[in-house]
Amino acid sequence: MENKGLTKVDLIFESIDVRKVMTKAFEMTSDEIIKEILDSGLKGRGGAGFPTGLKWKYTAAEKEPEKYIVCNADEGEPGTFKDREILDRAASKVYAGMAMAGKAMGSKKGFIYLRGEYRFLLPQLFVELHKFHKMIHEIGYDFNIEYRMGSGAYICGEESALFESIEGFRGEPRNKPPYPTVSGLFSKPTSINNVETLVTAVMIIDKGAKEYVKLGTKDSRGSKVFSISGDTPIPGIFELELGMTVQEFVNEFGDGDTKAVQVGGASGFCVPRKRFADTIIGFEGVPTGGSMKLFNSSRSMYNVLHNYLDFFAEESCGQCTPCRVGCQQLLKGVEKVKKGEAKSTYLTELVKLADTMKVASKCGLGQSVGNAFRSIVENFREEIIY
Amino acid sequence: MYHTGNLVKELAEKHGRKRESLMPILQDIVKKHNYLTDDAMVAVATELDISAAEVYGTASFYTFLDTEERGKNIIRVCKTITCSMKGKNDIVSTIEDILKIKVGETTPDKMFTLLETNCIGWCHKAPAILINDMPYTDLTPETVIDVIKGYMRK
Fold first, then answer.
1. Which domains are present in chain A?
2. Which candidate, A84, A178, A298, B48, has a CA 20 to 30 Å from the CA of A211?
3. Please, what is the end-to-end C-alpha distance for chain A in angstroms?
4. Does A120 touch chain B (CB under 8 A)?
5. Model confidence over A268-316: pLDDT tens digits?
6. In angstroms, what separates the C-alpha of B69 from chain A's closest C-alpha?
């Protein structure tokens, strides 16, 4: 097990000369940019962790003259708030990442889908955007970015639901394939990347992939911005090198009484104390879009699970049956067990239902409800029953 | 109830009359009037030349595109886990006391609507609420009273 310890990093919020990086990127060929991103080992920072270089390569390979670069700023995963901070403090780097992606894939048009909850940021984001458009025009490149707003739907963070929403429809995920790289927004080849992924790509071009791979592990290259909340004396946003154990994380951020850490939000995994030491935060262990919630021994894990299930039951788009009915039944099920209306063995049936949702649901929402469900029920069974 | 007047026509001029214009138009109506009336949705359908059912079907999918009457100020209290752990219930009951309404209700003078919402991205400064577009964080029952009173004076 490769273990890197806990190291603070400053890449995402580091103030850089955006004009200089953009000039460098525009002098590179499409292949050179993509190779650099591939060599860096960068995986998507929104949570799913798809290799960014491959996504860019596939989109670049499409012959269609019209392609889109979409920035996913529909940050809705419970416990995640780093994209807001990145847009607030480093918007020009987000725009630069989109323009660079545009250069790599042969696209002149970008959209940022910003969640409605962050609408208050728009005035300052427009000021920054105006400056950015002016700057890239001056260095002789043509790329235009527009904002599209969400309206309070968690599911619109799912890429194809996000496209549906921009196109003016209900945010219901599409069947895949075709994948967005082939047929995405307005049925055109589309590269959709998380806010942080785009900024990381800029830093990779700035510093070089060779330098970037010195950070992190084989499976989880680089650093990551973490959103840390719950029972911690220092909640907030921290950029950390990937590859630390949950124990090392808890030593730094815990309150001395941490009994569980929920890694990756409501759709992520619950790591109990006995697994802190041997669980790596990263793609080789517990992957995360950045959400880290700490719970101390005063918290009821039943309440945590109930809160998550209530969240999913509300946010399921309702399109496919396993997710729509599954979320409701899991919620009702744990309530029944808690009240003593169902035997504790009923929990085993519920875990089976969560497993079925994993294979039968259409999109990531229904497929990941089982992550939190199984990991909380298995590790804190007595708290759910009694 | 409100009258849309020329608003929908003006918004169609601004955002276009394509299907992808629908969300920006609905969002701008809600920004001005806080919710969508049946008349407003029919007017949008006419401008975009789509059925009113398509407009309602889209609007009703999104939590922030309310199709029920809402007050001038919409208070959304985050109920997701961290806010819930950090005193969300006290915040809700304080607001309920001061406005004399329950969650889901609107004050008789149509000044406030109180709702609960899912994670708004301020877990590190919980508990948090949104009033219209503005977030208020690190709240206590005392500070939330000041925030609400500020809106009462506006």
1. 18-212 (3.40.50.11540), 224-296 (3.10.20.600), 301-385 (1.20.1440.230)
2. A84
3. 37
4. yes
5. 999 999 999 999 999 989 988 899 999 999 999 999 999 999 999 999 9
6. 17
